[in-house]
Amino acid sequence: MPKSGFVGILGKPNAGKSTLLNWLLGEKIALVSPKANASRKRVNAIVMHGDDQIILLDTPGLHEKEKLLNKFMLKEALKALSDSDLVLFLADVRDDLSGYEWFLELNTKNIPHIVVLTKTDLVSEEEVRKKIEEYKKLGKALDVIPISAVEGKGKDELLNAIVKYLPEHPYYYDPEIISTEHIRDIYKELIREALFEKLGDELPYETDILIEKLEEFDNLDKIYATIIVERHSQKGMIIGKRGKKIKEIGIYARKLLEQFSGKKIYLELYVKVVPGWSKNKKMLEELGYEVEL
């Protein structure tokens, strides 16, 4: 019987979780951005490794902020932890172990886990070896595996380790599909990635995307999306002088959308000011977040 199971990907904000998911999958499903806390919702992706099936649960970064949106993000991460057969705890090889120690406190059910050291291309091999020993000394992880998505190192070793610790189980999903996410959610994430790419650190944290309408055809998808911000100054930043910035965002977003879908994309982008949306339960739910006060 093949092995099949759910694998949560957890770590501090910007540890490289979405990059890892896309790298293992070979497709762009999760938002990749250098800005911390870019991911806000779990993404289920399915990787076939030989005859075995790995269902990856990407999550927002673990953090302790009190804002309502951040509470949702922490809830998503903890739900992925409880739903998992195995957890990958991702840690930037340059970081100390404080994030890992907090993860161990949160892991009250003692879900088995592997520590994955990311961005190892940025330090020496000796520094990588020292960091591996630091984690191993704690004696909590099944394994500690260094990887570099940039250099393509550690992928097979990591996949083999994941499969080693998964239970024998029939496939949960058709092996032909790569994600359980609705196409709307994937399109939303790709538009958000375009925002991060074109605005960088200038992009306000309180920014989100609402897909107002999606029309799907054989060779064309029409997407009508609204960029939600909290202040008029943020709206001006996204639109830019004479609409230059939002035009750049739209062009880049269409490129990402067409690369993913294999279709032509018609995209209309609007910008709307909704004061305090990130603290508004009704608005968060409209954007697809499940929030408990």
UniProtKB/TrEMBL annotation:
Signal peptide: none annotated. It comes from the Bacteria. GO terms for molecular function: GTP binding; GTPase activity; ribosomal small subunit binding; small ribosomal subunit rRNA binding. GTP binds at residues 11-18, 58-62, 118-121. Pfam families: KH_2 (PF07650), MMR_HSR1 (PF01926). InterPro entries: G_ERA_dom, GTP-bd, GTPase_Era-like, KH_dom-like_a/b, KH_dom_type_2, KH_sf_prok-type, P-loop_NTPase, Small_GTP-bd. Keywords: Cell inner membrane, Cell membrane, Cytoplasm, GTP-binding, Membrane, Nucleotide-binding, Ribosome biogenesis, RNA-binding, rRNA-binding. One of its GO terms (biological process) is ribosomal small subunit assembly. Its main location: cytoplasm. GO terms for cellular component: cytosol; plasma membrane. Monomer. An essential GTPase that binds both GDP and GTP, with rapid nucleotide exchange. Plays a role in 16S rRNA processing and 30S ribosomal subunit biogenesis and possibly also in cell cycle regulation and energy metabolism. This is GTPase Era. It comes from Nautilia profundicola (strain ATCC BAA-1463 / DSM 18972 / AmH). The gene is era.
